[in-house]
């Protein structure tokens, strides 16, 4: 209507509420960030209407500035420690504390409703403050966090009157064997999702049953090891509407009454699409699960160490609609062949090592991966721990599956060459990046030279995260990546011969990335200091666990661990002694 | 019938409590050869270098970072989350102790006693301490040894405090065969670890136990 006119088009003709309504449809963080850059009035409207914020690095901004920037904040995602902290490369007290965030938001008028944390240190104190500061708090998701006990959970249960979601994934929780579950008041009937599979201690089973009974909206329930089979059966009767189930202990005698009742109960749970748990498992009881297999889209048996390959394949054969499968490598190559023939809808496969330290137990090899790639054309996400890999296999996989978004290969011996040709795996990974144009995440392993990085820099144009270990020959390798991967956000490197020249070649690059981790490389303290001096918007942290102080260390000495990240707020104030902020 | 226990701690002037509190998973983790890394709860830094069970180097940070030793275990490799490693370790210990009949909770093991004409079976999971087990064993095998108790007679066995006295300073040494086939003295490891690793029990006469472990008998004598 307005295009015919010669007047300047002015979107400000529309009242703010209209723009706000339009912005409601823009949900992606990236898009909202772009919207806020258009003009001042759009910035303002977006600012006040923004409810969901994602901070990939909790130290990139301070709580106070976040609150000022987005006063309407309702849902916050925070990530703390760098990824390599998962593998013991980051000392415990490095940082990532939740408390300052809760304190600041609690004092402000933020009406926080959802909080999702990953690799943060969460104290009981912060959980308690959280539970008391936000009356509308609805959802708490903790992934790979630590620092809290079941007392903190008790506070959440007791005080969050409208709690819908309590989802604890792989956290280290100290179990005080209190009755945290009993702290949910009788009036709490709003639970939609409850996941306490990572808790090690006993659970008040009667409280659990009562809680499930009074939660008609419960869709997701993941139990811990302490919940026995007969309780599981009773819970299923109370919650046949479940969509996602994590069993606790799955051990029983197939001839028992409890088992018969379970079989009956599970038949009526025809909404279950996602199944996990089996932390303890009796193989002979698995057939009770078969009736629900045909509707499963996600199956996680990666903790079910008690199941052998034939039991696994018998189960998986029934799962024709499976989209995501997490499994242990005891399934074997043959078992993966069964997956390939049965699960035609498969998109994500994760094969974990059942015994990470016994390399003699060759469970899966390149053959299994090739079979899956041939049988599952929709495969786009892979995490594969294997005994060995060949270039030929990777080239075949690249031909079969061009849709990979995430490709993480971990050969258990980190510098193992192609066992058939004795060559490095450069060509194999090169084929992957060439073929999978949408690749966003890549983890490398095996014997690799600078050549693989040449390929990555050349072809992996959409790559956002790259993990490198024991690879490369010289600085050239790292430079290929930094120069070629324009979308790179996270780069983590350990035990590679990359040094100062690579680090300092393009310092501005790091402001376009979230973070860089380098440990046991050739980078010296002097180079890190120079980088810190030239780039005020980067925090360069040196983690030094030896007794040396900063002054003792010569500029020419190599640093053991360096972690750098862009930030708007300069040095953090909570760094422990062994972290030097340059 | 008297069984000498080689256990530590506890009340009284003789074998009383046992180390049942400690879960002992730390020790299990050592056997699996988990590397000692920074700050992973429950892991023991094994700086001695070789884990005898696994024959592998443990807890090493690679001294030459570009070339890790082939069989050595490097910190943080393979890249598996500690949480997952710990969970699998717990499941592994439970798996290895489960019955052939498929994962029920009972842990029946054969018990033999020197001189007894037939063996017995006990369910280790019926007990929560070494003390309880030994009392049960004593009662079980009492019928074979009444004769040797001379004039004391049956009544004393009904009297538990007398039974406790008899458990002290005895000629009999409780031993067990573990997963690896080795014969071990009962009481060294925490109760939970013992239950997971015990395959059968044997109550040996002290004199025969000397062949097993010369110090064993000394220890028992010392305790009484």
UniProtKB/TrEMBL annotation, chain B:
It comes from Hibiscus syriacus. Aux/IAA proteins are short-lived transcriptional factors that function as repressors of early auxin response genes at low auxin concentrations. Keywords: Auxin signaling pathway, Nucleus, Repressor, Transcription, Transcription regulation. The lineage of its organism: Eukaryota, Viridiplantae, Streptophyta, Embryophyta, Tracheophyta. It is found in: Nucleus. This is Auxin-responsive protein. Homodimers and heterodimers. Residues 106-206 form the PB1 domain. GO terms for biological process: auxin-activated signaling pathway; regulation of DNA-templated transcription. The keyword Transcription applies. Belongs to the Aux/IAA family.
């Amino acid at each position: 209507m307005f295009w015919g006119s010669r007047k300047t088009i002015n979107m400000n003709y529309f009242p703010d509420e209209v723009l706000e309504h339009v912005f409601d449809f823009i949900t992606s963080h990236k898009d909202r960030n772009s919207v806020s850059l258009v003009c001042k009035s759009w910035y303002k409207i977006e600012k006040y209407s923004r409810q969901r914020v994602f901070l990939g690095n909790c130290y990139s901004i301070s709580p106070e500035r976040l609150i000022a920037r987005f006063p309407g904040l309702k849902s916050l995602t925070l990530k703390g420690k760098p990824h390599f902290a998962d593998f013991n490369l980051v000392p415990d007290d490095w940082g990532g504390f939740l408390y300052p965030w809760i304190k600041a938001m609690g004092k402000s008028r933020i009406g926080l409703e959802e909080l999702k944390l990953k690799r943060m240190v969460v104290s009981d104190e912060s959980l308690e403050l959280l539970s008391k500061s936000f009356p509308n708090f609805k959802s708490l998701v903790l992934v790979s966090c630590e620092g809290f006990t079941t007392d903190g959970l008790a506070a959440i249960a007791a005080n969050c009157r409208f709690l819908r979601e309590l989802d604890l994934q792989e956290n280290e929780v100290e179990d005080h064997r209190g009755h945290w579950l009993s702290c949910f008041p009788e009036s709490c009937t709003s639970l939609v999702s409850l996941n306490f599979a990572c808790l090690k201690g006993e659970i008040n089973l009667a409280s659990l049953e009562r809680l499930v009974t009074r939660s008609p909206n419960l869709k997701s329930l993941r139990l811990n090891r302490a919940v026995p089979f007969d309780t599981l059966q009773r819970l299923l009767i109370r919650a046949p509407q479940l969509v996602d189930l994590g069993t606790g202990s799955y051990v029983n005698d197939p001839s028992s009454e409890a088992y018969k009742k379970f079989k009956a109960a599970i038949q009526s749970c025809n909404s279950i699409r996602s199944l996990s748990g089996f932390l303890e498992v009796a193989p002979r009881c698995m057939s009770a699960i078969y009736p629900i297999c045909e509707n499963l889209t996600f199956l996680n048996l990666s903790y079910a160490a008690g199941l052998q390959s034939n039991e696994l394949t018998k189960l998986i054969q029934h799962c024709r609609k499976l989209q995501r499968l997490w499994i242990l490598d005891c399934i074997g190559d043959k078992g993966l062949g069964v997956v390939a023939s049965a699960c035609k809808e498969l998109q994500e496969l994760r094969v974990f090592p059942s015994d990470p330290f016994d390399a003699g137990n060759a469970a899966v090899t390149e053959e299994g991966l090739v079979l899956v790639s041939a049988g599952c054309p929709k495969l786009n996400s892979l995490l594969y721990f294997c005994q060995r890999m060949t270039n030929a296999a990777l080239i075949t996989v690249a031909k079969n599956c061009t849709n990979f978004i995430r490709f993480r290969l971990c050969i258990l011996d980190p510098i193992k060459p192609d066992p058939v040709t004795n060559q490095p795996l450069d060509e194999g990974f090169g084929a992957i990046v060439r073929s999978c144009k949408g690749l966003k995440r890549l983890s490398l392993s095996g014997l690799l030279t600078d050549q693989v990085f040449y390929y990555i820099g050349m072809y992996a144009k959409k790559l956002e995260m790259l993990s490198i270990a024991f690879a490369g020959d010289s600085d050239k390798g790292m430079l290929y990546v930094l120069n070629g991967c324009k979308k790179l956000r996270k780069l983590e490197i350990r035990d590679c011969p990359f040094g100062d020249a690579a680090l300092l070649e393009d310092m501005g690059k790091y402001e376009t990335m979230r973070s860089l981790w380098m440990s046991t490389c050739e980078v010296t303290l002097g180079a890190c200091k120079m980088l810190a001096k030239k780039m005020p918007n980067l925090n360069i942290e040196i983690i030094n666990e030896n007794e040396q102080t900063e002054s003792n260390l010569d500029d020419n000495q190599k640093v053991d661990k360096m972690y750098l990240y862009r930030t708007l707020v300069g040095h953090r104030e909570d760094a422990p002694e062994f972290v030097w902020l340059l | 019938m008297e069984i000498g226990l080689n256990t530590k701690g506890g009340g009284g002037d003789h074998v009383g409590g046992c180390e049942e509190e400690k879960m002992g998973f730390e020790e299990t983790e050592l056997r699996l050869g988990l590397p000692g890394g920074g700050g992973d709860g429950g892991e023991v830094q094994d700086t001695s270098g070789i884990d005898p069970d696994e024959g592998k180097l443990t807890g090493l940070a690679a001294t030459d970072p570009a070339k890790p030793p082939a069989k050595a275990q490097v910190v943080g490799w393979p890249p598996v989350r500690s949480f997952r490693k710990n969970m699998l370790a717990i499941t592994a210990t439970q798996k290895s102790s489960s019955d052939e009949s498929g994962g029920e909770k009972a842990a029946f093991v054969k018990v033999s006693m020197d001189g007894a004409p037939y063996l017995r079976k006990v369910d280790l999971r019926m007990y929560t301490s070494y003390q309880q087990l030994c009392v049960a064993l004593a009662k079980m095998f009492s019928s074979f040894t009444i004769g040797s108790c001379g004039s004391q007679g049956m009544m004393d066995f009904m009297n538990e405090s007398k039974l406790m006295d008899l458990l002290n300073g005895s000629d009999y040494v409780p031993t067990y065969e573990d997963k690896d086939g080795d014969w071990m003295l009962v009481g060294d490891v925490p109760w939970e670890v013992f239950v997971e690793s015990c395959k059968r029990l044997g109550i040996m006469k002290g004199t025969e136990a000397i062949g097993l472990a010369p110090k064993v008998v000394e220890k028992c004598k010392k305790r009484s």
